[in-house]
Amino acid sequence: MMKQMTIYDIAKLANVSVATVSRVINSTAPVKDSTRKKIEALIQQYQFQPNAMARSLLKKETGIIGIIVPDLTNPFYTEVLAGAEQEALTTGHTFLLTNSVGDYQKESQYLSIMREKRVDGMIFLGGRINLKIGDEELDQELIQHASTIPTVLVNGTVKGNALTRVATDEYTGTCMAVQHLIECGHKQIGFLGGEMHMSTTSTKLRAFKKTMREAGLEVREEWILTDSFSIYSGRKQMEKLLQLADKPTAVMCVNDFVAIGAIKTAVDHELTIPDDMSIIGFDDIPLSHHFIPEITTVSQEANELGRTAIQVLQKLMNQEKVKKHTVIEPKLIVRKSSARLN
Amino acid sequence: MMKQMTIYDIAKLANVSVATVSRVINSTAPVKDSTRKKIEALIQQYQFQPNAMARSLLKKETGIIGIIVPDLTNPFYTEVLAGAEQEALTTGHTFLLTNSVGDYQKESQYLSIMREKRVDGMIFLGGRINLKIGDEELDQELIQHASTIPTVLVNGTVKGNALTRVATDEYTGTCMAVQHLIECGHKQIGFLGGEMHMSTTSTKLRAFKKTMREAGLEVREEWILTDSFSIYSGRKQMEKLLQLADKPTAVMCVNDFVAIGAIKTAVDHELTIPDDMSIIGFDDIPLSHHFIPEITTVSQEANELGRTAIQVLQKLMNQEKVKKHTVIEPKLIVRKSSARLN
User: Fold this and answer.
1) Is the preceding peptide bond at A150 cis, omega within 30 degrees of 0?
2) Pairwise CB contact (< 8 Å): B94 & A94
3) Do both A144 and A215 map to the same domain?
4) Name one GO molecular function term (chains A, B) (predicted).
5) pTM, whole model, 2 decimals?
6) pLDDT of residue A57
7) Beta strand ranges found along A247-320 (DSSP E)
């Protein structure tokens, strides 16, 4: 290992204090001309690279944005991250990215780490902020951290909407998807996937039920099969649905992963999609365009969501005024997993 | 914003030097009993949270492992990361994760950032280290960084194999896949996808050609259609392949993404997979198990690869002896996109 020069070494060689070297590096205060030249010569001679940490200790900035993601294996989140990264490059920020796997204890651990690492700002991409009924203690912990670290929540909130958030309008998106099925002539429609205690599930279910009722259609509780957000969940719930004597002609899925699983199991059971059943997803992950059949879905505009979250965070970090709640409009993308009822 | 106490504030209140407070926090040297008690009381009173940066400046450790990933939207990498994260939690390290999108200039930028942030170690997951003919300057830059930061390369190398690496045996994996097709009775086999200047492509192509020749089969250059690693690439190259008068009965794809695209386009052209053509991928991304048809592939053991990379890095960081080259054995996973030749 090569020995790296530190600010302390430079100070010693120049026979000045660390603060003086820091002043020269950061131009934060005037330094006597001869002293400055001596320090600059040493920096040159030893090719000293100012330590970002030492510098940020004085400037109180780290150039790091902390990000807490609940599931890096879900392409929706990596698309949001791709958008966020594009935007963060414009201000030279890098990401301290952590994967909580939806575990609230890990989230707490990562929140402490973010504070310890003195990140300049934080994006919270899901987990406790997606609870239908928020947990008082978990919310308080997050609000507490957000009181010292500028924080933006994506597609979630805390008690009293106390924190700044950017979100897709999932309610409207679901209404659009269900309306599309109704316009295709479907009257018997089910809903698959999602955990009931997560707000994304309850929001989508509310929109589903309201759209059905407004069209004068019956909501059949036995066709509402929630579970989780994974491909496996879609497979398992479609398996249950297909065992019913009376089946729906169409299903709305909580996300594209569940739709992929649902289609897979339906096809395994010799059904043709969409002829025998229309199946719709939510998110528009890149794969929904390449699956067989291509999946009708609602685009969350993941890339824009990521870029917007960083834009809002940058304003917060600069102590500019921001809207407490920025809404991204969803888009219905009609592909080949939905069709007119025969 | 709440005012956070710093180590400087505590030192001032205790009327001692910052170094003394640091000694108490880190137990690095004895401090007079009365002084220690005074400092501990202040830490207690103000609920002072020792700043990780300040502490690590003294300990010269940051607790951060820097990771450079070429493509976060490819599930292979997120699976490697999931394994790496599990392992890193055992030593309390967190990841400074950066996405280079395969751009060498961005890689250089991120390497500088890693050095600036004084990461404890670094995992390089692809990009310049995958070049078939390494670039002298890019290699030198990386070797230079690795001389001050313990570094592990995953599935790649630099000139003279100068750095520590962990890799799947892609050559053997490809031989297994091609052998499987040959055993299914296929004699006319093509190869799709991958960039020719990347070593993963040339390694797999070498294995492909060698297995074909050893079986006495002809390698047809017009059936070798390289391009890139994306789903789109698979679609485009299968489109070209299907325009040929004489087509292969089976194709080996450089990865699962290319296989997904190839199957999608073949099906769009009314082919039935595997009856009309066998198509094999590489990587075993989770989706290959849920695609229609389920994809025969070679598992890179992504999770194990990630865990192993961190284990090797931890040894490097502890200045323990490590093998310069750790090999992970691939596994052939036969599913439904390949079948006996009719």
Assistant:
1) no
2) no
3) no
4) DNA-binding transcription factor activity
5) 0.81
6) 47
7) 250-253, 278-280, 297-299
